[in-house]
Amino acid sequence: MTPADAYAELARRAKEAQTLSSAASVLSWDQETYMPEAGAELRGEQLALLAGLVHQRRTDAKIGELLTLVESSSAAADPRAAADVREWRRLYDRAVKLPQRLVEELARVTSLAQVEWADARRESDWKRFAPWLEKIVALKKEEAQAIGGDGPAYDALLDEFEPGATSAALAPMFADLRAKLVPFLHRLLTAPRRPDPTILRRRYDVETQRHFARHAAEEIGFDFTRGRIDETTHPFCTGFSPNDVRLTTRYSPEFFNDGFFSVMHEAGHGLYEQGLDASRFGKPTGEAVSLGIHETQSRLWENLVGRSAAFWRRWFPRAQEAFPRTLSEVNADDFHFAINAVAPSFIRVDADEVTYNLHVMLRFEMEQALIGGDLKPAEVPGAWNVKMREYLQIAPPDDRRGCLQDVHWSAGLIGYFPTYTLGNLGAAQLFAAARSALGDLDGAFSAGEYRPLLEWLREQVHQHGMRYKPAELIHNATGRPLNADAFMASLESKFAPLYGL
């Protein structure tokens, strides 16, 4: 076999494994949207079986042989092929360290745990979910131990979501960001001007919200011939391929932000998924590079576009037409101020741009303590409330609005949360670079022209897949390493005028 043949065989095997994995993703999506609750046990077995089959394919010893053959030649001289081989090697070396039994058990337990979490959240009963978190933490510790590495066990889990990131590098970055956010938050909370958040806490017909949000997602570029929106407990986006991308959201009849900005957020994820190179499905260069980069896309479209004054110059008259009894006497400036209201809140996904990252830092620290053994699952509610008071000066009145609000731990996604803050920082940095390259984005948004921004993101981010590592991709697109400067500048430019500072 020639090195070129070896690369082709690796690509064939990777596509097969990815196709099988996408079938498991369909079942996971169905579980969160339409599956009856009684189907949970069988669904857990189905997902465990598929996870085992995918693991077998990805750890076949033949892959190691093929990689060695390609790596010893110039067959991967093409930059994208070289990136495929680099990432196949990284993923293979990680996968072969994990016993199939563990992979299957994680899939089974997390499938069941997500159903238990939804019920526990509905009943605001941490004790119901705690035994499941104990199982998941034990399994994730076993996973981290199997993967190994020079750093703490948590880093082995973090690396799955943000390749190359370490807790040692993130901790000072987050501490620096917190040191800047806290005084800025204090300035806003003591500012002379205040928004009227009751504008958003009125009656908003849910069916009308569905049409309104879908229209917005479609106008910014989400292709509904290759995607759809459904409803679930916790909004998410999943892409089975660039040609089948599923968004989910939830709507509240008495809170506009809950549905609309969830759709804008998930549509940002969906635009990334639809922007990947479909011809490279199964290859790393046809997949998103990291969850942090994925989050840059969702936060950019949700906050930097969707909460901008320019966006609402076009969309507020439409909102008034859609919700005449609710908004007929509201002016555009007051509405824009309301959707950008800053105040400590219990729920992360509803948090404003200023306080959001404080929620993430709280979870980052708690995850490290859970994996490091310094925090037991039964102790989470108390520790959570202590940190909420420390970071946001409030404490949730119940578990539903506290430690049970997020689906991530039930899904085994420990190590995921830091990517949200990386995404916020990267979104601001990318948006600043796009504005520099494209000129008057505010004028474009006011006119309903989002294509220039989307095409710039396609060129700078989407088309590359995993060709570049996350830090390299940000540097290539913006000309500088990831940092908090653009993010803080974005906050200052938006919120200082709103609050009269």
Can you describe what's shown?
With 501 residues, this protein is mostly helical. It folds into 2 domains: 3-148, no CATH class; 167-498, Neurolysin, domain 3. It is 64% helix and 3% strand. It has helices at 3-33, 40-59, 61-71, 79-95, 100-123, 126-147, 153-161, 167-189, 206-220, 256-275, 291-305, 309-322, 324-327, 332-339, 356-372, 380-392, 418-438, 441-446, 451-460, 470-478, 485-498; strands at 227-231, 237-241, 244-249.
Set out the fold topology.
Elements: H1 3-33, H2 40-59, H3 61-71, H4 79-95, H5 100-123, H6 126-147, H7 153-161, H8 167-189, H9 206-220, E1 227-231, E2 237-241, E3 244-249, H10 256-275, H11 291-305, H12 309-322, H13 324-327, H14 332-339, H15 356-372, H16 380-392, H17 418-438, H18 441-446, H19 451-460, H20 470-478, H21 485-498
Helix pairs in contact: 1-2, 1-3, 2-5, 3-4, 5-6, 6-7, 8-21, 9-10, 9-12, 10-11, 11-17, 12-14, 15-16, 15-17, 17-21
Brief sketch in words of this structure:
With 501 residues, this protein is mainly alpha-helical. It is built from 21 helices and 3 strands.
Structure characteristics:
3 strands; Neurolysin, domain 3; mainly alpha; three-stranded mixed beta sheet; 501 residues
Beta-strand residue fraction: under 5%
CATH class of the largest domain: Mainly Alpha
Helix share, percent: 55-70%
SSE order:
HHHHHHHHHEEEHHHHHHHHHHHH
Average pLDDT level:
96
The whole-angstrom Rg is 23 Å
Give the number of helices.
Answer: 21
User: Strands across the major sheet, in which order?
Assistant: 1-3-2
Secondary-structure arrangement, i.e. CATH architecture of the largest domain: Orthogonal Bundle
Could you tell me the number of beta strands?
3
Give me the secondary-structure category: mainly alpha
Number of domains: 2
Q: Main sheet? A: 3 strands, mixed
Low-confidence stretches: none
